[in-house]
């Protein structure tokens, strides 16, 4: 097998390395939350930009992959009354009748395994939004170390929680959408980190009756649909993930940053440490929120992204 440094395997003139540079739309981010707290169901979750939340990119750590210890029968995750609906044959499962915050350690391990298998899980009637934020963060830390968004808003005292907010008097995303022909922005959370997120918790605080969805694509399926020759061509190649421009543009536009710009190099084909599935650029999922409502309805989401192992590649094997 040819190595990533082989000049015959290059992209854009860089030996075996493609460059992926995060950009930010040239609009002025708000330094503080708009004055709409009285109308919010969760005012303590409204977005803020606290210049004291300076969080340098973290160094190496030993990640404990919880799914490797999970019982594949998942008896500790699924009670008898649980309802399970697979949304597509390979990706996405909706589950009701389970309270995630009450799971045992064995149940959490099985949750991690199910996420690795189904990529996206949706749980109804959860209590995360009503728990103390510190308790939510501690729960999530079981699965990995929190990854802090370098420029995004957070609750006032908890930089480990990233807030996505639109409507309710907050028109920042509307400004961005008005300058573009599409609101789609496919991305992978925290890919610039030396050890990017392996699991991400999203919990809805408020949402419109329709619109404001998030769409997901299964990057393991994307890899599997490539021809064997194309798959083999990608093995050994790397991508440079960089957010230097993001940090620079945010500062120039008057925004608050939590750290300096960073660059990491990861394999284009990544292997999951438990399932062994190969996927493109990350463990399994790429996503984009859809900004398809222009009125004042509120879309308010909290996110905790959890760093995992340093991405690695295993040798090509024809399927």
Describe the protein in words.
The two termini are 17 Å apart. The strands form five sheets. Strands 5, 6, 7 and 14 form a four-stranded antiparallel β-sheet that branches. A three-stranded mixed β-sheet has the order 1-9-10. A three-stranded mixed β-sheet has the order 2-3-4. 16% of the residues lie in helices and 22% in strands. It has six helices and 14 strands. The longest helix is centred in the middle third of the chain and has 14 residues. The N terminus is likely disordered. It has 319 residues and is of the alpha+beta class.
Task: Output the keywords.
alpha+beta, 14 strands, 22% strand, globular, disordered N terminus
Computed structural class = alpha+beta
Q: Shape, please? A: globular
Helicity range:
10-25%
Please summarize the sheet with the most strands: 4 strands, antiparallel
Estimate the strand proportion.
Answer: 15-25%
User: Which regions contain 5 or more consecutive residues with pLDDT less than 50?
Assistant: 1-15, 23-33
From the N-terminal CA to the C-terminal CA, the straight-line distance is 17 Å
- The count of β-strands is 14
